[in-house]
Design goal:
3 helices, seven-stranded antiparallel β-sheet, single chain, globular, alpha+beta, 126 residues
Length: 126
């Protein structure tokens, strides 16, 4: 595992173990598997894209949705006040202001807290 992923991994293990089943190191990203059979891919820019990150929650195989918080400066979203930070809310093209921290570790925590709440609400619906 790349050393820049260690703080993310440690935070996930310490604070979100109730929703994370396992993880896989995919060299260029870490994948966390969740209790609802979805997964989260964490990508950090590394030396080539320093400061860039993407936290992608894949639920396409469950309900057709994706959620992603990232700061890749796609000019399609430049009208957002939080640009380049933005949140894909259910689909690739449904993008809204990012309400999470702009610092990667804190942003990951915020994203995971949002996911934990989402998973809990889905569980309560059953």
């Amino acid at each position: 595992m790349r050393s820049d992923y260690l703080p993310i991994f440690e935070l996930a293990e310490a604070e979100f173990s109730e929703i994370i089943v396992s993880f896989k190191d995919l060299e260029h990203k870490i994948r966390f598997y969740l209790i609802d059979n979805s997964y989260i891919d964490v990508c950090l820019g590394g030396p080539r894209f320093s400061g860039r990150f993407s936290f992608h929650w894949e639920r396409g195989h469950i309900d057709g949705r994706i959620y992603r918080y990232d700061n890749f400066p796609n000019t399609k979203w430049k009208k957002l006040e939080s640009f380049p930070f933005h949140f894909h809310n259910g689909s690739q093209n449904r993008v809204i202001e990012a309400k999470f921290s702009k610092r990667p570790l804190n942003g990951f925590r915020d994203f995971m807290e949002w996911i934990r709440g989402f998973v809990a609400r889905q569980k309560n619906k059953k």
